[in-house]
Structures are given as structure tokens and as C-alpha cells.
UniProtKB/TrEMBL annotation:
Catalytic center residues: 235 (proton donor)
Catalytically driven reaction(s): 5-(methylsulfanyl)-alpha-D-ribose 1-phosphate = 5-(methylsulfanyl)-D-ribulose 1-phosphate
Entries under Pfam families matching the protein: IF-2B
Species the sequence originates in: Desulfurispira natronophila
EC top class, as a word: isomerase
Example GO molecular function: S-methyl-5-thioribose-1-phosphate isomerase activity
Site feature Transition state stabilizer, where: 155
Keywords for the protein's UniProt record, in alphabetical order: Amino-acid biosynthesis, Isomerase, Methionine biosynthesis
Positions annotated to bind substrate: 47-49, 88, 194, 245-246
Function field: Catalyzes the interconversion of methylthioribose-1-phosphate (MTR-1-P) into methylthioribulose-1-phosphate (MTRu-1-P).
Protein name: Methylthioribose-1-phosphate isomerase
InterPro entries in the cross-refs: IF-2B-related, IF-M1Pi, IF_2B-like_C, Initiation_fac_2B_a/b/d, M1Pi_N, NagB/RpiA_transferase-like
Length: 341
């Protein structure tokens, strides 16, 4: 698997795989400042809730190195946390990672070399934990998939959306490693085409059979009995099980229930926002209209047309068959979300 991100502890640089230009070009963006990191998150150089969280942790570390040279280091650090928090609003892993880094910073303030050392250790720990959690998650979720059959996934919740291995694709990878014979259907995922560009690319690289379909084909394929299960990732899960994920997920969940197809959500426990009692309170990010009106830089809609471009939608818990975490599989009514995760 191609590395999504890496941190050079000698050069103090963060390398991010530029996911805007995959699969045509494999190229890395170098981040040397916290502003570089915030910009990379906001512009989708890096995307996927777990990967955003890990990236933000390294952003704090880079920001702390800058703040050391500032006349007011405490004020500079406040700006670092604020700018990273504002980079994308929906993925809770971003705020989870920032809070972990904030606690380390506060425990070792005022800012000095020992603070930088502690922040670096915490960022590396968050990075490694994500990989380990995804592998555990994958092993738990693999048990739910059929020994032989098809599974649909939406958007990209693979190694490219995490520090490695993946959540939804981690479940598929683990199932294949167990010897299960799976055929994956990947939705294209308009308007940013994460499924077409990223999920199809990842699965091809792993030689896992994958077929790309348009987003609007899901219902017809379920009606034909071509899809036996669905597994998706998540950007934020409320304490009642309501799940925010890439736009289009809600429609797939409704179709899955209508056709008796199990619908699974795979995410590390860091994606669970226990303070959010209901998904109705989750902030849904609105992105630039040009993502809808243009394709690869070319206009595909009338100039000046009104556009709605929410990046995520909300799937109510009643449509979810199970939530898969590194700690195990949770079933409705998801009471465990409020205490165990």
C-alpha cells in the first residue's frame, strides 16, 4: 500500500500523499508549518476522518516548533489549535487528535524543547494507534462478511483515508486475508470521485476484485440481488448511533434496508462523539460549488447555476445493522456507545 502520510523527525517535515490527483499521479505535498497542514486538510490533499486526525496531530507539532520563535508562544499556540480546528468541521477525529495534543502541550508548558519532545511522541503515538486500531477493527468486521459473495462500499475508507490499512476497506482486507472470496462494488462517489479514483485504485493495488459503479446504480443492483452486504466508514458517530459519512451514504442505507441487505459502519472508537447525543446536531460541511459544476477543471453545468454541495449526510441509527470498532462489533440499539467506547 502507498503511504498516506509520513513524518520526518530529523527534517521536521510532514509528507502527505496528494489525493486530489490520484490515481493518475502519485505525488507528495511537503508541509513544514501548521498553516501548510491546515491548508492541506481544507483543500482535500488529505481526507478521511482518521487520516485528518493524524495529520492534525503533526500540524500541532509543526506549529509548536514555529511558536518557539514567537514573542508570545502561548498566543501562537492558540492560533495553531484554532486554525487546525477550522480546517474541516465534520470529522470528529480532527478534534479528538487536537484535544490529545492540547493536553500534552498544557502538561508540558511553557513551551520548550521538552514540550516539543512530548508533542512529537504523542503525534507518533496517535499515528501508530490508528494503524493498530484499523487492523483490529478489520479482524472484527471480517466475521460479518459472507464467505463468498459481494460487498458494496461508498467513498474511500481505506488506507488512503487513514494512517494505513483502512476502516471499511480494512474489514474487506481482513476478510480476504481470512480466505473469504469477495467481489467488491465501489460507488464512484460524486462529486469528488473518491470511490472511482481512490477505492478502485487501492483495491486494484491489493488485487482484490472490484467493480466500479455509478452512484445511481445501487438500487437497481440490490433489486437484482447483486449486493449481499454494505460496509462504509464514518466521519462522526453520535452517542445514539446516528452516523455522518460521505454524501450518498444515507440513500444507500435506506436502499439496503428496503432490500434486506446488512449495512455496516466501520470506524475506530475515536470517531464516536459521546457528547453528541443525536446526529441532528452534527455540523455538515458545505464545499465549493465548483466541485459540482466542474469536472477536472471543465464546466459541466450552466454558468451561474445555484448549487448545493454538502460533503456529508446523516444516516439514522435505525438503518445501521452494526457498528464495527477496534473494540468489537456493536449492535442496535447501540447503548454501548455511551459508555464502552
Amino acid at each position: 500500500m502507498i503511504a498516506t502520510l509520513s513524518y520526518d523527525t530529523t527534517a521536521h517535515e510532514l509528507q502527505l500523499l496528494d489525493q486530489r490527483i490520484l490515481p493518475s499521479v502519485v505525488e507528495y505535498v511537503t508541509c513544514r508549518t501548521s498553516s501548510d497542514v491546515a491548508q492541506a486538510i481544507a483543500t482535500m490533499v488529505v481526507r478521511g476522518a482518521p487520516a485528518i486526525g493524524v495529520t492534525a496531530a503533526y500540524g500541532v507539532l509543526l506549529g509548536a516548533r514555529e511558536a518557539m520563535a514567537d514573542n508570545d508562544p502561548a498566543r501562537a499556540m492558540s492560533r495553531v489549535f484554532d486554525s487546525l480546528a477550522a480546517s474541516r468541521p465534520t470529522a470528529v477525529n480532527l478534534f479528538w487528535a487536537l484535544e490529545r495534543m492540547r493536553q500534552v502541550y498544557l502538561q508540558h508548558s511553557p513551551l520548550r524543547q521538552s514540550t516539543l519532545d512530548a508533542l512529537q511522541c504523542e503525534a507518533l503515538r496517535i499515528h501508530q494507534q490508528d494503524v493498530e486500531d484499523n487492523r483490529c477493527l478489520g479482524d472484527h468486521g471480517a466475521q460479518l462478511l459472507p464467505d463468498r459473495g459481494t460487498v458494496l462500499t461508498h467513498c474511500n475508507a481505506g488506507a488512503l483515508a487513514t494512517a494505513g490499512y483502512g476502516t471499511a476497506l480494512g474489514v474487506i482486507r481482513s476478510a480476504v486475508a481470512m480466505g473469504k472470496e469477495l467481489q467488491v462494488y465501489a460507488t464512484e462517489t460524486r462529486p469528488f470521485l473518491q470511490g472511482a479514483r481512490l477505492t478502485a485504485f487501492e483495491l486494484q493495488q491489493d488485487r482484490i476484485p472490484v467493480t466500479l459503479i455509478c452512484d445511481n446504480m445501487v438500487g437497481a443492483m440490490m433489486a437484482q440481488g447483486k449486493i449481499q452486504s454494505v460496509v462504509v466508514g464514518a466521519d462522526r458517530i453520535a452517542a445514539n448511533g446516528d452516523t455522518a459519512n460521505k454524501i450518498g451514504t444515507y440513500g444507500i442505507a435506506v436502499l439496503a434496508m428496503a432490500h434486506g441487505v446488512p449495512f455496516y459502519v466501520a470506524a475506530p472508537s475515536s470517531t464516536i462523539d459521546r457528547a453528541m447525543t443525536s446526529g441532528k446536531n452534527i455540523v455538515i460541511e458545505q464545499r465549493e460549488p465548483s466541485e459540482v459544476t466542474h469536472f477536472m477543471g471543465y464546466p459541466v453545468a450552466p454558468e451561474g447555476i445555484a448549487v448545493e454541495n454538502p460533503s456529508f449526510d446523516l444516516t439514522p441509527a435505525k438503518y445501521i445493522s452494526a457498528i464495527i470498532t477496534e473494540r468489537g462489533v456493536l449492535k442496535p440499539p447501540f447503548a454501548e456507545l455511551k459508555s464502552s467506547c
